[in-house]
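Supplementary material to the annual report.
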Amino acid sequence: MSTGTGRFLKHTGNSLKGDRVPDIFDAQDLEQKKIFLILATPGMIRERNIEIIREISARGYHTVVITTNFPYSILTKQYTQSGIPKECVTFIDAVTRNSIGSAENIPGVVRYINNPTNLTDMGIAVTEVLHEHSEKKICIMYDSVSTLLIYLSSANISKFIHFVTNKLRLMEVSGIFLAVEKGLDPMLMTQLTTFVDKVIDTG
Amino acid sequence: MERSDEQKSNEQKSAVETGILDNALVMIAVLGEKGRIVSWNHAAETITGYSQQEVTGSDEIWKKLYPDKDYRRIITRKIDGILKTKNFFENLETTILTRSGESRTILWNTKKIPDGNLPRTIAVGMDVTNEREAMAFRGSIIDNAYVLIAVLGPQGTILVWNKAAERITGYSPDEVIGRRDIWKKLYPDAEYRRTITQKISRIISESNYFENLETTILTKSSDRRIISWNTRQIGAGGIYHEIAIGRDITEQRKAEEALVAYMTEMTMRLKQPVGIISSTLLESAQMVKQGVLTTEEIVLVLEGQARNATQIAANIQEFQTAIVDRDRSIPEAYRKFLEG
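Predicted assembly:
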């Protein structure tokens, strides 16, 4: 595991809408299917989410977003506003069904799970989505570890992340975990940093 | 008939001796053959309750002072044993029964004295009952103290190892007293032992004692206990001992660690989620202003965040319960409040 701190550099290439795209990742790291923990302030975490998807989409990756806070429908609008093509992203939505009770999966677009703590359903959904996009370069983004703290103890979060990172490595898929910076206690932070390959503090 | 100067001198000497005998603060008995009482001073009368007239000329007093046959036999054998090798004994401690039925502890010293051709022994008995009781009381306090107490003699030899020391470490006084190797047993890791020793040496060289030095010992049953040590130098007359008092703070430390863990977990599981709820609502408000969200989506967001807030409240209750369960010292009123 290595760490990157401070504000990340931005470059002007590979823009989908001609905007500046954040250079958070090394292309080589993504190629090597590395797993990242990305830290951001609470106010910036949504912006980072969008910047990350922009960057990795520009690098030719299809992103599977596991969302535990904003529902799929709203995130889609945000991504569209930010110029991210819909076809670059698939969602595993752990919010909508929890609120409205039922929602039908849309193959290739969104899969719903009942709530963020149903880790078994989440695992099944991930496996199915990866299968649907098996021909693509995939990167899974978990948004966010911090929201999970509402529903799970840090010990269970640690077990969950361990389980997911192992699964990603077995499936040879890149993974990104988003979390609010300075919000994880030293013990959990230490555990998480041992599970991932790189911690990037984007501020 | 007029008395000679020598006679006068002997009479004066005898009067002085009688005065000394009678006014001495210790029992003094002059014994003839087979323990027959020749002289019995005032202190002996006071301590035993038996008058000089009652005891003089016979050895019956010993049966009265030691009415228990077995005990008397033990004492007699002990005295006989001593007298085989020397014609006196020193600091022989016995317990007598006084006329009033009270037990007194007497420390005896004897010496043979010349009195013409007659065999005479002077027995001096000091009543040490109060000192022994005080000593036993002090010993009892030390022994029954809730903290580990160890008294170290020169070269670190253990002189005292109380019940708490045995309870905490698992090592009995028999295994420890008179030896120096207990520290190797309590600190079997040579590196840790060296660190502790260096630390103690440094503190001692600066202030002769140390306070609240925390170390982790390994007990006989292989448990680890955290001990907070305090030492003092005690003694007088050039003989000094170190008294080490150790308080087992293992449970206290565990409780503190648990409390820190609870507080940290609570902070993490409150601060972050509340921050996220706040950001989500602000972002949603922005999107509502922009007219991006449908009514259904607005409801979805609000319900989701309300659910998150409810879960946070449940988490707080869970933490409160955990803290109440963990810390028994919380006052009742606060306990009820925390229990909700």
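The CA atoms of residues 25 and 163 of chain A lie 23 Å apart.
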